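Team,

Forwarding the record for the chain on the shared tracking sheet. I've put the sequence and predicted structure together so nobody has to dig through attachments.
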Amino acid sequence: MNSTSNSILEIDRSLDRLIGKLELLGYINPQNIAKEKKTFFQKRYNYEPNFKYRKIKFNPYKLHRLFFSQRLERIDNEIIRDFYKDIIYYYSGMVECIETIGDTGNKFYYNSLRYYGTPTEKMVENARFILHYTDNIEENQKEDEFLTTEEAISFLKTIKSITILTLLLRLVVL
């Protein structure tokens, strides 16, 4: 292997290790959603839920620093280097979203807009459909039939294992 290939593998392994610390769904889903939902309906919609979120298991500042300390200049191929740069910016944005979850101001709102962009009209239509669809499901199913956040994370971890190189290959194919 040449030095560029070694650099790519080294950066890829490093980023994969860093990204493994991020579980957006695990942080964004409130831990007390069932209790707050019940209270909200019991008080006839005159209650502002007080959601509790999972504590962050990493230091956001340190993780940003580690993302941006990757030695991308060692990669000669500009296209591959730009892919890794995009991946670093993408996950850095995710870290910014995670660290502002549960913020009482608008930080999470603006970070998520920056990270995900403004929703299109089609996305809004899909969200409305999902909200209506879940209402119908809730009428027909008991709450204990749904997966908890921890169960969903555990399931997703078993099927995860996508490395950055696999992600890059998928991006190239697209």
